[in-house]
Amino acid sequence: MRKKVKTIINLILIIIVIVIGWSYYSTYNFSDYTKAEYNRGYTKFSRDKEVTYNQGSSSYKIENIDYNDAMFYKTVPVQPDMVYKVTCKVKTENVEVKEPNKDAGAHISINNTVEKSNNVVGTTDDWQELEFYFNSRNRTEVELGFRLGGYDSNCKGTAWFTDFTLESGIPNTDKNWKFLCLLMDSLDVTVEKEGRETPYKIAMTEQNKSDIIQAINQFSNSMQILSEGKMTASCDIFEVTEPITSLSYDTENGYYVAPSNMESILKQYDTLEKEYDHIFIVIQTGNNEQGDLIPVNNWIGLGGMEYRGKGFSNIRVPSKDNNYFYRYIEGLNTFPQEVLVHEFLHTLERNAQLYGYEIPALHDYEQYGYQEDKQEGQKAWYIDYMNCQIKTGQGYIGLPAEIYTKKPVHASDFQYTINMDDLKEPDNIFEELNNLWNKIIQMFSGSKQMTNTVKEVGT
Ligand SMILES: [Zn+2]
């Protein structure tokens, strides 16, 4: 009799342990995802059965108690040179970005890169759909992550993620590059000059506009010739009347326009359907007659930046109308598109490096015996750089010919897609129990230290 009671008590105890264990497991198990945060201990990761998109499933919740960059990610195998689309549903509550005009919020990204989707911030009444497109380049796997924060700034607040999908498409490998050229009519900004916050209202002159339009047309016409047929360029030029109201700053370059300074404007012009491959932002930063000059460290072009997988460059027009920098004048300036060529080549340089090619640095022309020409600038260097014709003791070097076919992701790449299972959630208890041990280990291993990815900006 006493033995029987003992057995029953033991059984009840086991059931209690299983129930508590299961409830703990369903709240804290993050499936195969690794949790990571920049400031350890500022973030709570949990599963939520209440706030969820589909009844019966539980969402993944990131709660940043203080400003932090936190994510959960999974290593997903990918095929090199392939385009991918990731989607999820996201809901946010009181998500605040630490600094204004930064590329941060709740989003999808690849760990340790600046490749990411748009952000969701604030409080959403309903679930939002997030889409993230990327090219695998030479990678065979990527760490796909769902993130609250960003490489650019930290966030606080709560984000719920669910309904993850991953599909592959067919990359467009034609050699026509489409350029979005935005002529920013004016800047209306307050920046620090000599230690004081100073307001500036600067407008582009009609002469500025006609000069740069001429230079863009020269660029568009000449890229096929300069690349010896390896690429063509088509440029769409838009004049944007909405002013830019904030600028970014770093000590090396001074003030400049980062994509996050004009996100709402970019969203109007640069949709995936437009299929742009590169973005030029043309700005005026000073009016010489009035002595209004925003502190800029002598650059006329700034490149190497990335916006949603595309190259992003600043082109600055002169603050004096009588400057012939962007004007074609026989015997004086026969290569007025030079800055556009230079900044675009920084994007190809960066792409080639990301693909793992060994290439010379775009700024190293002197090292290979090239000189600046009075009329044509560094045209000879660019031609040899683009066509892998820079002579060295070990043979010819320069950009690899195939770099011209490796373009950003387009919407038309996803007309025919293949759905992949890598982000699929378990469908039933047996799938859920699959790799249970791994999930339990992940659950107790806490969060990993996140590294800081620095964005590149260069002249
Ligand atoms: Zn440069």
Describe this entry's structure for a reader:
The protein is an alpha+beta fold and 459 residues long. The protein has seven helices and 24 strands. It folds into two domains: 197 residues, Sandwich (Jelly Rolls); 230 residues. Strands 2, 3, 5, 7, 9 and 23 form a six-stranded antiparallel β-sheet that branches. Strand 11 and strand 12 form a beta hairpin. The N and C termini lie far apart (87 Å). Bound molecules: zinc ion (ZN).
Number of helices: 7
Largest sheet: 6 strands, antiparallel
* Spans of at least 5 consecutive residues with low confidence: none
Our measurement of the CA-to-CA distance between the termini, rounded to an integer number of angstroms, reads 87 Å
Question: Per DSSP, what share of the residues sits in E-state strands of 2 or more residues?
Answer: 25-35%
The total number of structural domains is 2
Average pLDDT number: 93
> How much helix, percentage-wise, in residues?
10-25%
Q: Shape, please?
A: elongated
Number of strands: 24
Rg, nearest Å:
26 Å
The distinct bound ligands, ions and cofactors come out as: zinc ion
Structural class: alpha+beta
Task: Summarize the entry for a quick read.
The chain is an alpha+beta fold and 459 residues long.
